[in-house]
Structure formats: structure tokens, C-alpha cells
Specification:
heterodimer; A: alpha/beta; D-Maltodextrin-Binding Protein, domain 2; 2 domains; elongated; B: mainly alpha; 3 domains; four-stranded mixed β-sheet; two-stranded antiparallel ribbon
């Protein structure tokens, strides 16, 4: 029993390595990772005021035409903008056309009980949208100031903190993506391996070897999961070398393994029921999406569990991982019942 | 034309048979319903950073309904202890917030700030009259380029836009890009079925019968594509009408995209050898096309280069901003050109010997290129090849740019230049190398002559593309750098010729391995590009 089992595992693994298809899979992951972090970087440098201000180095010279006691100018300079005061709009405008300032903010005035500020920006899309982004925060603070003047109190207005987008992206998107994408590939691969035997009519030949149908499917799933786990470990090693701190490595690998198992078991079950690649892959993709949707709705998402393990959440431990393991066991038992259909 | 419809009808019957009977249509429907439901319930609640933070609350604190936070109700003393232990990241006591100095706690604080800002805004707007809740109006104006005479009002170029700072939508076109992506999703799904159809025929050997029937490969491909294309375009119409978009405009924007995606998926069944191949190739293709479509569109209105992607046009459509013909053609022409190229390749490759061959992928590619070239005299085939692959090169370079943005700033340009030099050398020489391998080219003179023609074809295509893009993209330095828009055509032509000849002679005459010959050619090309850029700057 054992040796034909490993023979099938070995056959599948060598075929993947020989066809170089696994290279494509790794390429995709590399691409996804670098594409999404590239996108994030691009978005941050174009749309995140903190990042823009850090790189501008006091380069945002804004002319303000205002009374000395208006708080708007001081809010703006506290935000890191280079504020230059003018007493009339005309002088400010002259400075703009001499290229001394990038934008003008006209004196706040009262219009029907509302305060009105006029902002004059350059016509260029890029520069004006940057200015609009960095001036947003002081304008909001000024708005809060005006609210307080009218007796409207905003709570929690003085919170600061550090910009969290990169952190959130790393732990809630990038690491789960790198850990679970191989699981998704493992599922698709299981379908390919099984339906290929069915559609190529080689299943009977394979079963004439001393190997049961469950043994055959088990071997194929083992091959798929092995590949997935190897990829996950490689990614974890790379992330560590890159200086990303990841906690609970053992449980993360265990979770990746279990999810790869769940994914390939589900896939194998679809393949056993439908017996052709076209429908199996389609239904499997839908099942996967539905699984992600439902588990997120029920707040037992493996993605969240993985993020929490990676940041070292105090209330997440191996027990959470074991919950998924029990789901895996049940699914695998169901697969064993279903797999007999392949013999018909 | 009649045959095309016959094949199209046969395709519909095949699909109907496959998905009728058994439990699969029911399962698909049930799953789609679950998907719709979960997408509906999760549409607002899922964000970046799901479940990352824990907050302790004590006393009178607003309900924190944010998927990033898990909430613990604590007493003041417990809360302080938990915060010090690192078990919670922030502690909220009435209207006071406590955090630690470390990064994670500070990140949580920023996330809390974002949530509270939103929450307080809603509270204020529902419990106070408008002019107390929103006392500030900002009039945004854009100044003209000419200074008006002294004493007059500032000269503005667009009508004034009045905004309330706290409720201005964010400038990043996230939402619109997501909506635009909704169009792409069904197109991709449908084209996967289109791919499956070919694979099915191939597995059952029915394609052989079809190929021996009196229909051309072109008619077969067109007929098989027709039902799926109609289906894809009707989903576009459906989505456009559901999202209140301009239907003809949406069709005009997404028809070239649909053609492009189908073109790419046509290649999958032609090249696969095992089922696993198909899965991996499809995944790669999906990732690359998504990157190509999404990446530029995220920079709508901040860079004209965004027009490389048709999604930018869709974003503009949803923002009700106008765009012109040139902006429309910049993404659409290359996509349509790729479609044409893929159809041509498809008709050449759709024969039994090619489809059934099990060889390494590189050999298969070489076979494919040979089949595409063998239709006419080498001099014509080589020139045409170099000319026709331009859109593909252009797209590959865009994807590469997206890829390179992760690198340290100083490396980005160098990496992109190197990679594009590599791609250019590859496409310019690969045809000649393949012809030489099959013994079509024998002498050095022939190789040199074809190298010249390849360089010429490439240059003409390249200049045409630069001409189209420069008229749209004002920041043309980047595309100029990618496509070396030198003023004197003679210099780039000579340069191209030299690089191509170097690679070809190294490979054909001196029997260097292709990758090595290509590497050497690329280095020459890279140095040339770097010198040109430095001279230009």
C-alpha cells in the first residue's frame, strides 16, 4: 500500500517540476506581491498626505490672505505647510505668478452664517490634487474650530497615531495572500490531476496497480499540499530575511497546510462528483469564493486568523488553528465516501 | 459567414448539454446566490486590516463597528493592565484614549482616529442643524496661466467647486476602479469557458473532425468565440444599466477590452499540454491582465499615463468627466491590435500536429513562431513580425513598470530600461533565430539582411506608437524613454540593426546559447538607451 502511494506522489511532483509549471505559479505570486505593494507605494506617494508631506520637505508654499488672528494659517503651518502671509489677494496673486507660491488661500469671510474660504490652485492636475490632499487636514481642523465656536463639540478630535496603511496591508493582505494562494493552486491542481486521469481514460490502468481509489486520491492531494506548504515556507523565509516580523511561525505553517488540505479535498470532491475539468474548476472557484464569503460573515475567516497569528494577537492561538483542522478531517472523510463514484 | 453561425450554434448546444442535467446547474446557482449574499453583507465592512487591532472600552464610549477592531469591555484597572501587557492596543475610557508608544498601538490609534472622525460626523450631522454642523464652505478655483492686469479679480479657468472639507470624497479613484473591475470579472469568467471549449474538443479529438470539414480555422475560431463574445458584451450592457452608466459608451470602452481578453485566452488552449498547464497559464494570464488594467487606472487624473488602461476611461465615465478620441484610442488601439495578432496566430496554429504535440513550452513557442512566419517569404515575414509585435511589447513594458515600482527609486528606471531592452531584443531576433534553426536562413548575408529588416519593421511600429501616445501623454519622457524617441531616425535604426545582428550572429554563426546571445545584445542596447537618456536630460 505505502509504496504505490508514494509512487503516485512522486510522479505528480516530478511532473510539476519537469513541466516547469510550478515556476509559473511562483512567478504569479511574486508578481501579485510586488504588484500590490508597488500599487500601495504608488497610492501612498500620490494620495496619502503624510507621505506627501514627508517627501515634500517644506516645498508646499501656500499664500494665505487672512487676519492675524485667524487660526487657519497656524493650523496649516502646524501641519507642515510653508505658509506665507499676505495682506491682500492682489499681492498674493502677484507672488503666485512670480512662482513664489503654489496656491492661494483667501481670507475667510462670513456669508449668511457660514464661513467661506476661497482656494486658488494651479491648473495642473497633478500639483493641484497634491495640494488638495495636504490641505484637507488643516481645513477639517479649522472646521472643528468653527463648530466649537457654535457650541458643537467633536469628541476624539485630537487623536494622532501613525499612518497604518503599510502595516495593515502587510499583515491583512500580503501575508495571507502569500500563504493562501498556494492553497488555491493546490485545489486547482488536484482537479487537474484527477480529471486528467478520468478524461484521458488512464484511471483504470492506474488502479490496476495495488492502489485503492482513496489511496490514489490521497496521494494526489498529498502531492498538491506538499507543494503548497513548500511554497509557504519559502515565502516565510523570504519575508523574514526582508526584515518583516512574523510571530507564531509554526501555527502559521500548520494553518497554511490545513487550508491547502481543505482546498484540495474540496476540489477533489468536486472532481469526483462532476468528473470533467470544465465544470469542476468552475464550481470549485465558486465554492472557494463562497467559502471565503461565508467564513468572513461568520467571523471565523482563516484570513483573519492568519493575520492575528502573524501580528502575535494575544487572544489567538493554536486552538483556533485546530478548529480548521477538524473541518479538514470531516471534509476528508466525506471525500472518501464520494471518491467511489469515480469507479462507476 | 454561414459556417460561422453553424459553429456558434454547435457551441451553444455543447454548453447547454454540459450544464444541463445532474446537480451542477443547481449547485452553480446556489453558490452564486451565496456569493451575492455575502458580497452584499460584506460590502461595507471588509477593509484592509481586518481584525488586526483589539480595543478595550470602559464607560461611555460610542459603539465601534469597524472590522479592524475587536472590542473588549473592561474596567479601568484591567484595561490599563491589558494595555501595558500588549493584549489590547488602545484603551478608550469615556472620551479619553490611551495608547502605548510602540508601532502597533500607534497604528491602532490612527485607525481609531479614522473611525471616530466618521462616527462623530454622523452624530453631529444628525443632531445639529446644517449650518452648525457644517459651518465651513471652501470654494476651489483653478488659476489661469496668464496673469490678469493689476487690480482685477483672479482669472479662473474652471467653474468654482464648493466643498465641505469633512465630507469631501477621497480623491483616489478606488471606488470607480472597483466598479470598472466588475465589468472585467464576468468577461474573464466567460473567456475561461471559451478556453474550456477548445480543450474539450481537443481531449475528445472532435477538433480533428472539425478541422477536416470544409471550414477554415478562422471560421472555427470566430464561430466558437461568437456566443461567448455576445454573452460578455451583454454582461457589459447589464452592468452599465445597473450602475446607471451610459450604455453605448460603456460598450465602446469595454468592447476592445473584451476582444483583448478573448485574444489572450485563445492562446491558452493552443499551447497547453496537460490540464495543469492550463490552470497555471490561465492564472498567470489573469494576473497579468488585471495588473495591466488596474495599475494605470489608479492614477486617473494624476498622470496622463493612466490612459494606457481602458479602466481609466470607465473611471472618467463614472465621474462624468469628458475625454477625447485620442484618449479613447490610446488604450483601445493596442488591445484591438493584439486581438488581430492573436486571431492571425490562432488560424496558423489551429492544426492537429501543433495542438497534439507534447514538447517543452519553449519548443512549442518556437514551433508557433515558425508556423506564423512560414506563410510567406522570410523578408516579408520578418519585417511584418517586428512591426506587429509592437503592441505586445508595449503592454509588457507597462506591466514591467508596474512591477518595478517596488524597487528602490534609483533602480526603477534602470530596471525598466534593462527589461525593455531585453524584451525588444527578444522579439526582434526570435523570428530570425527560429528560421535559422529550420534551415531557412543559411548565410551570414541573409541573417544580416533580415536583421536590418527586423530593425526597420520594429522602428516603424515603435515610431507610430510614440506618435499616437505623445499626442495624449504630456509627460512623454517616460514613454519616450521606453521607446527612445530620438529625433534622427537613422541613429536608432543603425542601433537597432547592430543589436539585432549581434544577437543573431552570436547565435547562428558562433552557436552561442540563445539566452547568452540575448543577454549580450541586451547589455549593448541598455548602454545605448542610458547614453541617449543622459544626453537628452
Amino acid at each position: 500500500m505505502i509504496s504505490p502511494f508514494f509512487a503516485v506522489v512522486k510522479k505528480e511532483l516530478t511532473s510539476v517540476l519537469r513541466d516547469r509549471t510550478i515556476v509559473i505559479s511562483i512567478l504569479i505570486q511574486l508578481f501579485l506581491a510586488s504588484f500590490s505593494s508597488g500599487l500601495l507605494l504608488g497610492m501612498l506617494s500620490l494620495y496619502d498626505p503624510d507621505t506627501i508631506l514627508r517627501f515634500s520637505d517644506g516645498g508646499f508654499r501656500i499664500a494665505v490672505v487672512a487676519d492675524a488672528d485667524s487660526p487657519l494659517a497656524s493650523l496649516m503651518s502646524r501641519r507642515g505647510l510653508n505658509v506665507i502671509s499676505f495682506s491682500t489677494l492682489q499681492e498674493a496673486q502677484d507672488a503666485y505668478y512670480r512662482g513664489e507660491v503654489l496656491a492661494l488661500v483667501d481670507v475667510p469671510r462670513n456669508v449668511n452664517g457660514l464661513t467661506e474660504v476661497k482656494l486658488y490652485l494651479p491648473e495642473s492636475d497633478t500639483i493641484s490634487s497634491l495640494i488638495r490632499m495636504v490641505i484637507q487636514e488643516p481645513l477639517k481642523q479649522y472646521e472643528n474650530y468653527l463648530r466649537e465656536q457654535k457650541g458643537v463639540n467633536i469628541r476624539y478630535a485630537d487623536l494622532q497615531g501613525k499612518p497604518a496603511t503599510s502595516f495593515e496591508f502587510m499583515y491583512s493582505a500580503l501575508i495571507p495572500m502569500l500563504m493562501f494562494f498556494p492553497a488555491f493552486v493546490a485545489g486547482s491542481m488536484s482537479i487537474d490531476m484527477i480529471t486528467e486521469e478520468v478524461e484521458g481514460k488512464t484511471l483504470q490502468t492506474l488502479l490496476s496497480a495495488p492502489l485503492t481509489i482513496s489511496g490514489m486520491i490521497g496521494a494526489k492531494i498529498t502531492a498538491a499540499v506538499t507543494l503548497a506548504v513548500a511554497q509557504c515556507m519559502a515565502w516565510l523565509a523570504l519575508l523574514r530575511t526582508n526584515g518583516t516580523e512574523i510571530k507564531n511561525i509554526f501555527w502559521i505553517v500548520a494553518l497554511a497546510l490545513i487550508i491547502a488540505g481543505i482546498s484540495s479535498t474540496t476540489a477533489a470532491m468536486t472532481a469526483a462528483l462532476l468528473q470533467d475539468r470544465e465544470r469542476s474548476q468552475f464550481i470549485f472557484s465558486l465554492l472557494l469564493l463562497a467559502g471565503v464569503g461565508i467564513s468572513t460573515m461568520l467571523k471565523i475567516s482563516p484570513i483573519t486568523t492568519l493575520s492575528r497569528l502573524a501580528v502575535g494577537d494575544a487572544y489567538t492561538s493554536g486552538w483556533n488553528v485546530l478548529a480548521f483542522a477538524s473541518a479538514f478531517v470531516i471534509l476528508f472523510w466525506m471525500l472518501l465516501r464520494v471518491s467511489r463514484r469515480l469507479l462507476k | 459567414m454561414n459556417q460561422v453561425f453553424v459553429i456558434a450554434w454547435r457551441e451553444i448546444t455543447r454548453l447547454r448539454k454540459r450544464f444541463s442535467g445532474g446537480a451542477s446547474p443547481l449547485a452553480a446557482l446556489a453558490l452564486l446566490a451565496v456569493l451575492g449574499l455575502s458580497a452584499y453583507t460584506l460590502r461595507d465592512s471588509v477593509s484592509l486590516g481586518n481584525g488586526l487591532y483589539r480595543a478595550g472600552v470602559s464607560g461611555d464610549v460610542p459603539v465601534i463597528d469597524d472590522s479592524r477592531f475587536s472590542i473588549l469591555t473592561v474596567t479601568l484597572e484591567d484595561g490599563r493592565a491589558l494595555l501595558a501587557d500588549g493584549a489590547i492596543d488602545v484603551l478608550i475610557v469615556d472620551s479619553q484614549v490611551f495608547a502605548r508608544e510602540d508601532d502597533k498601538s500607534q497604528f491602532a490609534l490612527r485607525a481609531l482616529k479614522q473611525y471616530m472622525e466618521e462616527f462623530e460626523l454622523q452624530r453631529v450631522s444628525s443632531s445639529f442643524v446644517d449650518e452648525e454642523a457644517f459651518p465651513l464652505r471652501v470654494g476651489v478655483n483653478y488659476l489661469g496661466g496668464q496673469q490678469p492686469p493689476a487690480g482685477s479679480e483672479p482669472q479662473t479657468v474652471k467653474p468654482e467647486e464648493i466643498i465641505i472639507p469633512s465630507i469631501t470624497p477621497p480623491p483616489a479613484p478606488f471606488t470607480q476602479v472597483l466598479v470598472a473591475l466588475i465589468y472585467i470579472l464576468p468577461i474573464t469568467f466567460i473567456s475561461i469557458f471559451f478556453t474550456s471549449s477548445f480543450m474539450d474538443e481537443k481531449a475528445n479529438r472532435r477538433l480533428t473532425i472539425l478541422l477536416s470539414a470544409p471550414v477554415t480555422p478562422f471560421q472555427i475560431i470566430l464561430g466558437k468565440m461568437l456566443p461567448y463574445a455576445v454573452f460578455a458584451l451583454s454582461t457589459t450592457v447589464l452592468i452599465a444599466s445597473l450602475t446607471d452608466a451610459n450604455i453605448p459608451l460603456a460598450l465602446a470602452i469595454f468592447a476592445p477590452t473584451t476582444m483583448f481578453i478573448f485574444a489572450i485566452y485563445l492562446m491558452v488552449p493552443l499551447f497547453y499540454r496537460t490540464f495543469k498547464d492550463t490552470t497555471f497559464i490561465s492564472m498567470l494570464v489573469t494576473t497579468l491582465t488585471t495588473a495591466y488594467l488596474v495599475f494605470p487606472a489608479m492614477f486617473t487624473n494624476t498622470s496622463d499615463l493612466a490612459y494606457i488602461s481602458p479602466l481609466t476611461l470607465a473611471v472618467k465615465m463614472y465621474r462624468l468627466e469628458p475625454f477625447g478620441w485620442r484618449e479613447y484610442l490610446l488604450p483601445s488601439l493596442p488591445m484591438t491590435a493584439i486581438f488581430g495578432f492573436a486571431m492571425f496566430a490562432g488560424t496558423r496554429l489551429l492544426n492537429e500536429e501543433f495542438l497534439m504535440g507534447y514538447k517543452p513550452l519553449t519548443c512549442k513557442l518556437a514551433d508557433a513562431i515558425y508556423l506564423m512566419m512560414a506563410h510567406s517569404r522570410p523578408w516579408f515575414a520578418v519585417t511584418l513580425w517586428s512591426f506587429l509585435v509592437i503592441p505586445a511589447v508595449y503592454m509588457a513594458q507597462v506591466v514591467m513598470l508596474a512591477f518595478a515600482t517596488n524597487l528602490p527609486v534609483r533602480l526603477i528606471l534602470a530596471a525598466v530600461l534593462f527589461a525593455s531592452a531585453f524584451i525588444e531584443e527578444l522579439v526582434k531576433t526570435v523570428g530570425i533565430i527560429v528560421l535559422a534553426q529550420r534551415g531557412v536562413i543559411r548565410t551570414v548575408r541573409e541573417a544580416l539582411w533580415l536583421s536590418f529588416l527586423s530593425a526597420l519593421g520594429f522602428l516603424i511600429g515603435e515610431k507610430l506608437l510614440v506618435f499616437v501616445s505623445v499626442s495624449v501623454v504630456s509627460e512623454a519622457q517616460v514613454s519616450g524613454a521606453l521607446f527612445e524617441s530620438g529625433i534622427f531616425l537613422l541613429i536608432p535604426l543603425t542601433a537597432h540593426f547592430i543589436f539585432v545582428s549581434v544577437v543573431n550572429l552570436l547565435r547562428i554563426k558562433l552557436k552561442f546559447p540563445y539566452w547568452l546571445a540575448l543577454g549580450i545584445g541586451t547589455i549593448f542596447h541598455f548602454i545605448y538607451n542610458a547614453v541617449i537618456l543622459r544626453g537628452g536630460a
